[in-house]
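Retry 2 of 3 after timeout on previous attempt. Resubmitting structure tokens to design endpoint.
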């Protein structure tokens, strides 16, 4: 059977193809609709141009073939993390290419076209997932989850809109969708082109595939490496397998976690037996956005943050307050703050969206709800980052929630943050903490000024000058703009450190100014900042502090061995964030009454 190359065609073949082309009016078919006739006309023009300029046409075909090979091989060798994105990763032999070559050579034309298209489209989809893995690893310290993470893409668009503007967010979303679609189409077309080239040169392709298979197996057996990377690889199939395992593990975890959430050491504890040693105290749990261990230990950020913590410790001591500090390992990294909040308050390890949905749909006793259950505290939340309905308030046991629109703020947004922390705290004082009341207050406060991209950052103003927030208009206009630092790691570190200094200063000055003998402040970071700031191998640890005037409050946690002051020592205890709830409830006199999975 003669071999037909893609570069030599008879005039009769061209004529036959033209006659069969959509829209042709040759004797082989009946007249076609106008769109098909237009397509036939364009094909005829292409063939005519190819006939007039055969060398140019040959060069174009060769360039397209080379581009197809680069595209397919690049996708097969593409890693799923930015750290691994090095030239050495592309100097390898992908086993999947050898197998695909053999398969395509064995198939007749129509099945070959279908198989090549499916292979290419699948490779395009895997490339999209690898790119998503890169982004998620960079920002959240983990890969993309096919089951759970699609909703986070909407959050990412909202973040870009708040940081860079609505137009930028729209274009980014359109561009990302177009890129994903383009990858699927181009990869399918590239695979089809290569499959047809293999079929046109079947004998040479078969010999080449045999040689490649021999080299691959030899390198795999001997562990041959180049630039410290194995030459023989199956990274693409490994990445696909990892995605599949991630999906299966997620589905299994959902059922297991639902049972785990039902087992609660304090689930059946009567209200009268919860936190009796804090009766009469105003207890305030405060999360500082992205306040991680890197802020205290990174050589770029540590000097400024350390000075702030030392100065704040001294100022609070002069006001009669003392502090103890330690470390907690957060369930999240780089973002998804709600996972850290729910982990800390529920006593469960909530490290993905499915777990969050599961736990918030149940009746798990949160640390904040424990105070509501006693009936002895008013419970409120101050959530300046919340800009839409937030049904989780009931699960957290909050009688009243102040979101971004409830605190009377008339000033500018500071990138993602809807208002400066100092304003949020002053509003909390005005609306709740400073009011006369019949019983003490338990509050959950989330401070957002240290949220990425850390530009512009507010600055402290006189507490009597805060007003409705209009005083921040000039501060916002004079600040660093997000586009100026968002891709600059060094500047991001500097501005991140400044934002932590601002948030800590706002909180400790508020306590110094408004705290009483019965105020107990528990504050912590919800997670580390993204890897561009915290580092590729940073831990997930965050600082946590308890501050009070009453010495009995700190005496109750003496056996925790925490560090005196607001800055935890490097060797201070490190606990999983999920362990804090039970330790806190136990330290302040709560009596366990467990519920189990069968209750």
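Retry 2 succeeded. Sequence:
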């Amino acid at each position: 059977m003669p071999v037909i190359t893609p570069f030599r065609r008879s005039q009769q073949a061209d004529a036959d193809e033209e006659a069969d082309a959509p829209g042709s009016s040759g004797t082989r078919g009946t007249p076609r609709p106008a769109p098909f006739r237009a397509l036939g006309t364009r094909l005829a023009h292409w063939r005519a141009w190819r006939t007039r300029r055969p060398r140019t046409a040959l060069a174009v075909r060769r360039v397209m073939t080379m581009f197809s090979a680069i595209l397919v091989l690049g996708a097969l060798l593409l890693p799923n993390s930015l750290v691994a994105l090095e030239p050495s990763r592309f100097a390898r032999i992908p086993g999947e290419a050898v197998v695909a070559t053999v398969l395509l050579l064995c198939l007749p034309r129509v099945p070959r076209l279908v198989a090549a298209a499916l292979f290419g489209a699948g490779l395009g989809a895997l490339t999209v997932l690898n790119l998503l893995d890169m982004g998620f690893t960079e920002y959240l310290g983990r890969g993309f989850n096919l089951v759970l993470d699609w909703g986070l893409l909407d959050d990412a668009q909202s973040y870009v809109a708040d940081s860079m503007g609505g137009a930028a967010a729209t274009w980014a979303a359109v561009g990302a969708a177009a890129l994903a679609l383009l990858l699927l189409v181009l990869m399918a077309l590239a695979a089809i082109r290569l499959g047809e080239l293999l079929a046109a040169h079947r004998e040479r392709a078969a010999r080449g595939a045999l040689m490649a298979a021999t080299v691959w197996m030899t390198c795999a057996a001997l562990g041959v490496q180049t630039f410290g990377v194995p030459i023989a690889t199956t990274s693409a199939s490994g990445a696909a397998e990892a995605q599949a395992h991630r999906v299966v593990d997620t589905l299994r975890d959902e059922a297991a976690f639902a049972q785990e959430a039902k087992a609660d050491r304090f689930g059946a504890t009567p209200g009268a037996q919860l936190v009796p040693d804090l009766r009469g105290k105003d207890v305030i749990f405060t999360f500082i956005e992205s306040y991680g261990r890197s802020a205290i230990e990174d050589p770029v950020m540590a000097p400024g943050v350390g000075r702030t913590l030392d100065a704040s410790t001294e100022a609070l001591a002069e006001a009669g307050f003392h502090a103890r500090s330690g470390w907690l390992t957060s369930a999240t990294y780089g973002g998804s703050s709600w996972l850290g909040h729910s982990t800390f308050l529920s006593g469960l390890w909530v490290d993905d969206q499915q777990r969050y949905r599961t736990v918030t749909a149940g009746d798990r006793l949160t640390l904040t709800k424990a105070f509501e259950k006693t009936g002895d505290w008013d419970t409120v939340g101050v959530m300046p980052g919340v800009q839409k309905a937030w049904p989780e308030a009931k699960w957290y046991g909050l009688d009243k929630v102040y979101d971004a629109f409830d605190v009377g703020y008339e000033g500018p947004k500071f990138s993602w943050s809807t208002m400066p922390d100092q304003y949020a705290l002053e509003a909390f004082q005005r609306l709740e903490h400073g009011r006369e009341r019949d019983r003490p207050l338990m509050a959950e406060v989330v401070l957002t000024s240290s949220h990425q991209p850390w530009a512009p950052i507010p600055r402290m103003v006189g507490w009597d000058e805060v007003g409705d927030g209009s005083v921040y208009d000039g501060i916002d206009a004079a600040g660093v703009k997000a586009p100026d630092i968002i891709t600059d790691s060094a500047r991001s570190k500097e501005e991140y450190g400044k934002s932590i200094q601002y948030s800590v200063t706002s909180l400790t000055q508020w306590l110094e100014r408004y705290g009483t003998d019965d105020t107990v402040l528990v504050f912590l970071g919800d997670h580390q900042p993204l890897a561009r700031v915290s580092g590729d191998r940073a831990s997930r640890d965050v600082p946590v502090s308890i501050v009070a005037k009453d010495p009995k409050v700190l005496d109750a946690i003496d056996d925790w061995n925490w560090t005196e002051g607001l800055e935890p020592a490097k060797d201070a205890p490190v606990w999983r964030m999920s362990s804090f709830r039970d330790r806190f409830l136990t330290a302040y006199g709560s009596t366990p009454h467990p519920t189990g999975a069968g209750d």
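Attempt log closed. The longest strand covers residues 322-329.
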